[in-house]
Amino acid sequence: MVDESGRDLAVVGSYTETEDTGLTSYRIDGESLDRCDAAEERDPSFLDVHPSEPILVAVNEREEGSAVSYWIDLASGRLSRLNRTATGDAGPCHVTIGPCGEYVVVAHYAGGSTALMSLGTDGALDGPLDLRRHEGSGPRGDRQASPHPHSAQFVTDSIVYVPDLGADRVAVYELDRDDDRLCPLPDAAIGCRPGAGPRHFAVHPTAPIGYLVNELNATLSVVDFADPQRPTVVDTLSTLPDGVEATDTIAADVHVHPSGEYLFASNRGHDSLAMFRIRTSPEKVVREAVTPTGGRWPRNFAIHPDGERIFVCHQHSNDVIQCAFNVGTGELRRKEVRTKIVAPTCLQFI
């Protein structure tokens, strides 16, 4: 969303181990991020924005998990807290608002569950209406001894994919609006390579193709969901340069460029963005470049709607860095402008 004067807004969520400010709004002015407002929230590690209202929902990634909604004033960037509610389990690490805006799905990494909540146009959160506990484990005993749902993605207005890092699979649910439930579709689940650790999922803007980033082995899987209840993995590629092993690197985030011609994935440890070109069709993907991001631990990044700028959140070097992207040539160029933010974990445009 953009206000009447055409100036862009962004909100950044951060971990708050060393300070109280967890949410910060910024005006994007050319190459700089100008701070507008801040709110004291404990560990709002992930955010999502309502599809039609200036409302965001953040999850507080703590033992007693909660979600909170805010109204954003588009003219001033002011953040006004609207509502808070428990999410029903420990360690909510991701939140997604459904395409119609009336439901919220929360993934609990620590608790091993997925929750459904309702969201009103006034920002009122209600729930959890349903809580689905995951089962399973993987070969990595240090990270996969139990289920760890890491995100949720609506691939249609009623089908939700939930990558589970601990169980090496993507759980699939169908939203039942009559009974406010997430109905498991076990036969539709996507099995991943043992030890892959599926984390985030992005959808192509015009085709039923998704891109799954696997944290533990730093790979990207291409998923065909022409039938969303029978998805298939059609290819898997490394997010690292040829010859570089994933020993000291874990992948984090994935986004498709608005043009539908490129997609990007972030590597923590290698501290880079992998750029993939989408060739003759959305399932035909080739990794073309892996570019250092200039900071430490790029946990999350966001592609500006104009497609020409990418903002990278570096959790460990405490900054957000902007990169310029040339859609015509595919060149990604890091700018030297650096916004200092303590432990940024998620940036969303408003």
What can you see in these coordinates?
- This protein is mostly beta strands and 350 residues long.
- It has a domain at 1-133 and 293-321 and 335-350: YVTN repeat-like/Quinoprotein amine dehydrogenase (Methylamine Dehydrogenase, Chain H), CATH 2.130.10.
- 0% of the residues lie in helices and 55% in strands.
- The protein contains no helices and 29 strands.
- It has strands spanning 8-14, 21-29, 32-40, 44-49, 55-60, 66-72, 79-86, 92-97, 103-108, 113-119, 125-133, 153-154, 159-164, 169-176, 181-184, 190-191, 198-203, 209-214, 219-224, 232-238, 250-256, 262-268, 272-278, 285-292, 298-303, 309-314, 319-326, 331-340, 344-349.
- The strands form seven sheets. Strands 12, 13, 14, 15 and 16 form a five-stranded antiparallel sheet that branches. A four-stranded antiparallel sheet has the order 3-2-1-29, with no helix packed on it.
- Strand 22 (262-268) and strand 23 form a beta hairpin.
- The chain is globular and about 45 Å long.
- The termini are close together.
- 51% of the residues are buried.
Task: Describe how the helices and strands are arranged.
Blueprint: E1 8-14, E2 21-29, E3 32-40, E4 44-49, E5 55-60, E6 66-72, E7 79-86, E8 92-97, E9 103-108, E10 113-119, E11 125-133, E12 153-154, E13 159-164, E14 169-176, E15 181-184, E16 190-191, E17 198-203, E18 209-214, E19 219-224, E20 232-238, E21 250-256, E22 262-268, E23 272-278, E24 285-292, E25 298-303, E26 309-314, E27 319-326, E28 331-340, E29 344-349
Antiparallel strand pairs: 1-2, 1-29, 2-3, 4-5, 5-6, 6-7, 8-9, 9-10, 10-11, 12-13, 13-14, 14-15, 14-16, 17-18, 18-19, 19-20, 21-22, 22-23, 23-24, 25-26, 26-27, 27-28
